[in-house]
C-alpha cells in the first residue's frame, strides 16, 4: 500500500518537554522567586508526582475535584489550563503567581526540544512527496514551537484538539488531519507514542506506528524506523 500522508503526534513523538526541574527553575526566575536548592528539588519532585507538567509524567492520582475536567482537558484551552494549574496547586509553592508562570512556561518554544531524528524523518518524508500533518491532544497553539525550531516548513497541516473540540482517540481529529491533507485515511500512517489515543486512527483505516515516550537522549532514532517501509509517493505504483 502506498503511503501518501504521515500524521505525527507532537509531545513524546516529535518533541519532548524539558525536565520538571528545568520547568520549575524557569518559572522561579520569571517571577523573581528565590528558594534554597533543596527546596527546588523537592518542589520539582512533588510537581512531577502531581502530573502538573503538560507533556511530562502523568499524575499519580487525579484529585476528585479535577476528575471531570481532566478527562476533557484537551478539548478547550481554558479546560487545559484549569486542569494543569489545578494539579500544580496540589503542591504548596511559595508564591501564588508561580502556578500561572509554570503553565505559561510550558507553552514557550524554549521548553521543548525536538527528538534528534525528527528533522531527518520529516525532511525525508517531504523529499519522498509524503504530506505531513501534526495531530495533537493539546490546549494551546504549538505552531510557534515548530517555527522556532525550524520545522514548520516541513508540516503541511495541524489538527489540534482544542481547535476542533475533540481529542484523540476520537476518529474526527484524524479525519480532520486527512481532510486538511486532501487524503483518504487509508493512504496515511499515524505515528505516535500513546497506544490508546494514537491508535484511534486505525478506526479510519490508517496504519499506526508507535514509538516509546522517552527522554530526548534515549530516543535517538525511533522515527527513522518510520522511513523504512515507506516508498516514494511519487514513484510507488
From TrEMBL:
<keyword id="KW-0547">Nucleotide-binding</keyword>
<dbReference type="InterPro" id="IPR023214">
    <property type="entry name" value="HAD_sf"/>
</dbReference>
<keyword id="KW-0067">ATP-binding</keyword>
<keyword id="KW-0378">Hydrolase</keyword>
<dbReference type="InterPro" id="IPR006439">
    <property type="entry name" value="HAD-SF_hydro_IA"/>
</dbReference>
<dbReference type="GO" id="GO:0005524">
    <property type="term" value="F:ATP binding"/>
</dbReference>
<dbReference type="Pfam" id="PF00702">
    <property type="entry name" value="Hydrolase"/>
</dbReference>
<dbReference type="InterPro" id="IPR036412">
    <property type="entry name" value="HAD-like_sf"/>
</dbReference>
<dbReference type="GO" id="GO:0016787">
    <property type="term" value="F:hydrolase activity"/>
</dbReference>
<protein>
    <submittedName>
        <fullName>HAD-IA family hydrolase</fullName>
    </submittedName>
</protein>
Amino acid at each position: 500500500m502506498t503511503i501518501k500522508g504521515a500524521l505525527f503526534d507532537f509531545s513524546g513523538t516529535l518533541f519532548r518537554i524539558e525536565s520538571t526541574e528545568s520547568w520549575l527553575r524557569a518559572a522561579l526566575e520569571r517571577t523573581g522567586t528565590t528558594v534554597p536548592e533543596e527546596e527546588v528539588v523537592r518542589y520539582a519532585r512533588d510537581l512531577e508526582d502531581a502530573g502538573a507538567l503538560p507533556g511530562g509524567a502523568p499524575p499519580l492520582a487525579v484529585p476528585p475535584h479535577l476528575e471531570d475536567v481532566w478527562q476533557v482537558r484537551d478539548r478547550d484551552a481554558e479546560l487545559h489550563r484549569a486542569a494543569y494549574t489545578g494539579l500544580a496547586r496540589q503542591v504548596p509553592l511559595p508564591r501564588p503567581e508561580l502556578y500561572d508562570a509554570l503553565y505559561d512556561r510550558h507553552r514557550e518554544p524554549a521548553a521543548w526540544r525536538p527528538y534528534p531524528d525528527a528533522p531527518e524523518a520529516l525532511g525525508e518524508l517531504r523529499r519522498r512527496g509524503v504530506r505531513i500533518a501534526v495531530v495533537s491532544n493539546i490546549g494551546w497553539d504549538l505552531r510557534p514551537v515548530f517555527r522556532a525550531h525550524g520545522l514548520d516548513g516541513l508540516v503541511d497541516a495541524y489538527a489540534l484538539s482544542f481547535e476542533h473540540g475533540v481529542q484523540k482517540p476520537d476518529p474526527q481529529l484524524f479525519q480532520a488531519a486527512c481532510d486538511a491533507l486532501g487524503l483518504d485515511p487509508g493512504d496515511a500512517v499515524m505515528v505516535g507514542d500513546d497506544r490508546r489515543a494514537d491508535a484511534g486512527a486505525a478506526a479510519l483505516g490508517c496504519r499506526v506506528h508507535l514509538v516509546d515516550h522517552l527522554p530526548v537522549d534515549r530516543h535517538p532514532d525511533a522515527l527513522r524506523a518510520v522511513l523504512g517501509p515507506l516508498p516514494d509517493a511519487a514513484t510507488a505504483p
